[in-house]
Write a structure and sequence with these properties.
The chain has about 290 residues and is α/β, with parallel strands linked by helices. It has a domain of about 190 residues: Rossmann fold. The protein is about 35% helix and about 25% strand. The chain has a seven-stranded mixed sheet, with helices on both faces. A four-stranded antiparallel sheet has the order 1-2-3-9, with no helix packed on it. Strand 2 and strand 3 form a beta hairpin. Helix 3 packs across helix 4.
Length: about 290
């Protein structure tokens, strides 16, 4: 075979591959829709002084679907120094995302290993609240609720994934598939846990105020989420390796400082700060109702 002929075939193959790639990209764009309801103001302080900041790419995320846009445009609030996504997902987009469930969120996932981690978390809460109703918002694999019951708490779970709720109910544990602010609980809540949940909520202040009204007078709030003030976060960002900027379900990047002030605005005193062993750059905060 002549060299010229071989080169022509290679060039032709490359050209066909590029055309196919372009066609696939165009097809994806055609199938995409307006997936977000854009914020006009900061979702925490309502300031209109917001500007574009970091940009992420969610296309490599397991929950990603080609119907969704890949770009994640983060915004900064000049008033309260909070970073948030340009807007929460529409109902249509959420249906696509919630059509899949990460393995580590399946009820009973690695139950024994997670039991030890959950026990260490619960032990930090006991000095502030040692009994009563434990409400876990976004209970996922259920480990924290199962272990809280071992410690003598009455467990209640809330999650937006129906399979988990049905599974928990089948075990005789009270569970709801609804926004927590819409639920009327029969008993006052002693402990509310939101483990890697607050950053998924479009308007966190709404939920925190609702929880405050449903809790005991000395009720305890346990929150886990990434800490944008940690040096792990800062170094990862400098190296362009901050996975949280690409997290498809995240709406907020909280700093310890901003989260503490938000809790105070909603009627809670921050009592204890800790480093989470569950996720990179994570923090765990225990707060108590004022």
């Amino acid at each position: 075979m002549k060299v010229e002929s071989l080169n022509e075939k290679i060039e032709s193959s490359i050209d066909e591959a590029l055309k196919l790639k372009q066609a696939l990209l165009e097809s994806q764009v055609e199938n995409q829709f307006e997936a977000r309801n854009l914020y006009d103001n900061c979702p925490l302080c309502a300031s209109s002084k917001i500007s574009k900041s970091a940009v992420g790419d969610c296309s490599k995320q397991w929950l990603y679907n080609p119907k969704l846009p890949t770009i994640m445009q983060w915004m900064n609030c000049e008033e309260c120094d909070h970073q948030f996504i340009e807007g929460p997902y529409t109902d249509e987009a959420l249906k696509i995302i919630f059509s899949k469930q990460p393995e580590n969120q399946v009820l009973g996932y690695e139950l024994e290993n997670n039991r030890y981690i959950s026990a260490r978390i619960i032990e930090k809460v006991l000095q502030y609240k040692s009994n009563g109703v434990w409400l876990d918002i976004g209970f996922g694999n259920g480990s924290l609720l199962f272990t809280a019951q071992e410690f003598g708490f009455e467990p209640i779970g809330v999650d937006l994934r129906k399979d988990g709720v049905i599974g928990l109910q089948s075990l005789g544990i009270q569970a709801y598939c609804d926004l927590v602010q819409n639920i009327e609980f029969k008993k006052s809540i002693s402990v509310v846990s939101m483990m890697d949940v607050l950053e998924h909520i479009p308007y966190p202040k709404e939920v925190l105020l609702a929880m405050h009204s449903k809790m005991d007078e000395d009720g305890c709030l346990l929150i886990s989420c990434p800490n944008s003030e940690s040096w792990v976060w800062k170094f990862r960002t400098r190296q362009n390796q901050n996975m949280y900027l690409n997290s498809i379900e995240h709406y907020h990047n909280f700093s310890r400082t901003r989260l503490a002030s938000l809790l105070s605005e909603c009627g809670f005193d921050m009592k204890k700060y800790g480093v989470s062993e569950r996720y990179r750059s994570g923090m765990e905060i225990i707060a108590q109702k004022k």
